[in-house]
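Re: duplicated header lines in exported structure tokens

Our pipeline writes sequence and tokens for each protein into one text file. With two proteins the header for the second block appears twice in some exports. Here is an export where it did not happen, for reference. First protein block:
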Amino acid sequence: MPRGHYSLHDPHDHTPLGEEHFHCATGPSGWRYVSQIVNPAGDHTGSVDLTLDALGRPLRLELTRGAWQVRGAALDGVTWVRTDPTGEHATEGNVPAHAFSGASPAFLIATARLLRPALGAGATRARLVAFTPPVLAPRTLDQSWALVKSTPHATDNAPLVADEYQVTDLETGEQHPVHITGDVVLSAPGIELESLDSPPSAFN
């Protein structure tokens, strides 16, 4: 069960945004990721609890940021309920999309797991619903993912394979790399792996 923390920063001006302390695990039914998010002062600001099935589809999402909360799952596309800070109003949403996205590294692992692009096979498209800080407002976006490089690294146990993906925003054409090994993000825009106390889990 990998456990560690990521540093988070603004991908444009590199302003520190805090840290995400996580643990995750694969199992017979899929994968689960749980994390707590803190700001640069160390104050708790949010959490992520994401469970995928064996095909990478979101079985359950619980996302908090400040007093905002989102609960969602893959149902007739993706379906969610977003609750405001007062708790008096909850809005429901449904979009014919493949999965969820957001600021957490969990969503990068989830999308790579769902699409599973093959090396040299070109890009695979996905429609995602993104919930981003500070108010977790939903936004539908289209991305393509291409696996451009897989590099094995020798370890004391089995070789560790680092995959480099090229992710393209199909609305703007903006591209950026995402580096993943197993179920851990090594680096991505605004995200850096800072500590890991056990090797990443391998998906079957």
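Second protein block, exported in the same file:
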Amino acid sequence: MSDRKLAGQFFDAAIGLLRRVRDEDAGDIEAAGVLIADTVADGGRLFAFGAGHSSLAAQDVVYRAGGLALMNLLAVPGVVGVDVMPATLGSALERVDGLASAVLDSSPLRAGDVLVIISLSGRNALPVEMAMNARALGVKVIGVTSVAYASETKSRHVSGTYLKDHCDIVLDSKIAVGDAELTLETIEAPFAPASTVVTTALLQAVMATAAGALADRGIEPPLLRSGNVDGGHEWNGRVMTEYGDRIFYRR
């Protein structure tokens, strides 16, 4: 089989998943966007968290040209990204009970805020406890996960529950357990993960919905512009000054 044919198969698989989330998650995407718009309008703050490769989608909506300036990254040392050494430490930390409580206790999250939690499997202690404890604080939680894991894997949290069980809104990425879209007789393991493509698209659809919902209310969405276009820095400086008390990645 040619490499070109495999590439085409991956694109087809990713496009198929994107079509599914577009059609099947439309109501939840709308609800998530409206919740974010409500939070912005009511003076709340926005945060996103993901561990390991799930952090890529969280980072994609923070300090992003064309994105909402108010979206902040809730970072957990050793968990966000694969730059920690050894890389396997990040996976181990996701299973540590109590870590989420320590993170939230030292974070600026408060009642009335929104926290987007991204976890493909939704089965580890960290995202489950993060959602549980955030909601106990009065924070609204949007979970981005693959619901299939809840029926095909065992929870690693003492409660036996998953991220999806502790969210105000759940966005289902439709990713199959194992996150690999392709197989080949000559390759023993499945390959070509699509979760980052789909999860990132899901969240950008939510942000687009939120921007539109704010505009419909006569509120200018606090959007950032690219620093690589003329006037971008000046625009961003104005937005950051106006909303400085809700932007934490500058401190």
